[in-house]
UniProtKB/TrEMBL annotation:
One Pfam family of this chain: GGDEF
UniProt GO cellular component terms: plasma membrane
Organism this protein belongs to: mine drainage metagenome
Cross-referenced SMART domains: GGDEF (SM00267)
This protein's name: Putative diguanylate cyclase YdaM
GO BP of this protein: cell adhesion involved in single-species biofilm formation; negative regulation of bacterial-type flagellum-dependent cell motility
Length: 315
């Protein structure tokens, strides 16, 4: 069973005597950026290397103290899970110990990864001394958040990416199924965008995409969701909006784009138009795919009928 009180001592000498007399294993771990720890299950003493305590923001006076209570520094919401991991490991159910949890440090809680193995066993073969590492995961978490934001945001226009938009659409669909209400989808595709790029160059094409994105954002409500699906195709999700009202919104968007322009490569300005398809979530639809299909069919009708217009599915 894990001890009731866990003491932390920052003195490396404590690690030497507790874990591996005469050994320098913790120094190598510190050089790699991890903190070393050793834990005597009988006495409850847990010794931590000085550099890890410093990296995690403990005050100078704390680093020299022998009374830091590790368990009390674990986030209250994580303590039960950590205790379960420790109990399973000490009972021999696992060969190694591994726990991700939040630990109190200067400025708040830090995510850490604690890993360990049995360093010494008792005469009965039970774990007596454990040793392992602490890894500060703060940098990894920041990197994960940066990657998440990049994957959710189109780097050119700043709108949601296709994946992020479809995730939002599925969330809105589930909300409508639970609570009722309407949900409409608008698909917009820039007319002749490939020829536009060929004629005016990719830089002007990028400017046109950004201009369209700003037109959409300026016209829509804060509760609406807009994304760029790829190329010159955009999508708009309108919560609590029936098909007829969605058609009016699409017409406003179409007009805003038609009235806008971007600087041309040789001076002057160039205009671009877009075709729109609109559909409302039907009662029998269980997913976003069918709503996308019907909206896409309406968009194809708008292209076929001459472009720069709004179409809805036939009743």
């Amino acid at each position: 069973m894990p001890p009731r009180t866990l003491l932390v001592d920052a003195d490396p000498a404590a690690l030497t005597s507790l874990a591996h007399p005469g050994g320098d294993w913790w120094a190598a771990l510190e050089a790699a950026g991890d903190g070393a720890w050793a834990w005597d299950l009988d006495s409850g003493l847990m010794a931590c290397s000085r550099c890890w305590l410093q990296d995690c923001g403990f005050a100078g006076e704390d680093r020299g103290a022998a009374g830091l209570l590790w368990r009390e520094r674990i986030h209250p919401d994580d303590r039960e899970a950590v205790a379960a991991e420790i109990a399973a490991f000490c009972a021999g159910e696992r060969d190694t110990f591994r726990s991700e949890h939040r630990l109190a440090a200067a400025g708040g809680y830090r995510p850490v990864l604690m890993r360990g193995a049995v360093l010494r066993r008792s005469a009965a073969g039970l774990p007596a001394v454990l040793a392992g590492t602490f890894t500060d995961l703060s940098g990894y978490r920041r990197l994960e958040e940066t990657v998440r934001q990049l994957s959710a945001s189109d780097p050119l226009t700043g709108l949601r990416t296709r994946r992020a938009f479809l995730e939002a659409a599925e969330g809105e669909r589930r909300r409508v199924r639970r609570h009722g209400g309407a949900l409409s989808l608008i698909l917009a595709d820039l007319d002749g965008f490939r020829r536009f790029n060929d004629a005016f160059g990719p830089q002007t094409g990028d400017a046109a995409l950004c201009r369209v994105a700003r037109c959409l954002e300026a016209t829509l409500r804060k509760t609406d969701t807009v994304g760029r699906l790829g190329g010159g195709e955009f999508a708009v999700l309108l919560p609590a909006t029936e098909g007829a009202r969605a058609g009016m919104v699409a017409e406003s968007l179409r007009q805003a784009i038609a009235d806008s322009s971007v600087p041309g490569p040789g001076g002057g300005s160039v205009r671009i138009t877009a075709s729109f398809g609109v559909a409302c979530l039907a009662a029998q639809e269980d997913g976003v795919a069918e709503l996308l299909r019907r909206t896409g069919a309406a968009l194809c009708d708008a292209k076929r009928l001459g472009r720069n217009r709004v179409c809805r599915p036939a009743p």
